Amino acid sequence: MPGAELVAEGWILPGLVDAHTHPGAETPGQPLDVAVLEEDLRAHLNAGVTLIRAPGLAGDPPDWFGQADDNPRAFHAGPWIAQHGQFMPGWGVRPELAELPIIAAEQAARTGWAKVVIDWLPDDDVMPVEVLREAVDRVHAVGGRLAVHSQQAAGGSVAVAAGVDSVEHGMGLDLDLLPRMAEQGIALTPTLSVITASLAKIVADPERARKSWYVHGASAHARLTAAAVEAGVVVLAGTDSRPHGGIAEEVRALVAAGVSPHQALAAASWSARSYLGLPGLVEGGPADAVVFEEDPRTDLDQLGAPQAVIVRGKRVR
Ligand SMILES: [Zn+2]
């Protein structure tokens, strides 16, 4: 670009994306805390993340969220929408099933996304497919998209049958559904690093209730993730919980699962941007970028130390 100023030299990528993160609360169930939110967003920026999607927030974010100069861009789905008796106590809303599609559409009309928790623990009811299908239709009718939390095989089947836009976690998802997800453009955010980390803790705890469900699903999750990429499903990198700024760990987990470094980076950069509707490094596109000293595909350690992070044309690291 004529007259441009040199900011950094090295390997430039479209800014990284964390497609599943819930900044702003220290522990599950706590209300949104603006100081914690600022700290979490800073952690994302330092990790090279210039765009986040928050599929569920502990409260309404302040106006500057996703807008301010020193903030990653952000999409969010407001509070989680769950069934009675399910999900984290203190977080989310639990409308009657008859009202749920309307609540989801109202949320999507406000922020572009709604997030529905369609299953929870093994003995809990999975959301009826008709309810979810109506929610999808209503959300789409207002131009929004719908993401679902699923960690049960039956939930995954309901999600795909209802035609949601993204399956979050997807633990236990039937591999036979992957071609249909690819065909319909249903994305998968496996949150692989956080599920793998929980697996290690749960395996070490012999008294843990519902251990067999989690161990079974989490042990197969890396294989499922790699199979999804192979089947052509849009896979998005997402880190879920605190500490924030762990996108490098998720890329590493994808590579450890057998995803190529190029595709794992795509899941945390250009293909996630494209799925969320933002262009990459093209003329006239948003100036969101991250620069590494060496090619991160041949040296994943580069991801932990970006040379420069640029959002909205301004260097923020
Ligand atoms: Zn989550």
TrEMBL record:
Signal peptide coordinates: none
Span of domain Amidohydrolase-related: 11-316
Record InterPro entries: Amidohydro-rel, Metal-dep_hydrolase_composite, Metal_Hydrolase, Metallo-dep_Hydrolase
The protein, known as: Amidohydrolase family protein
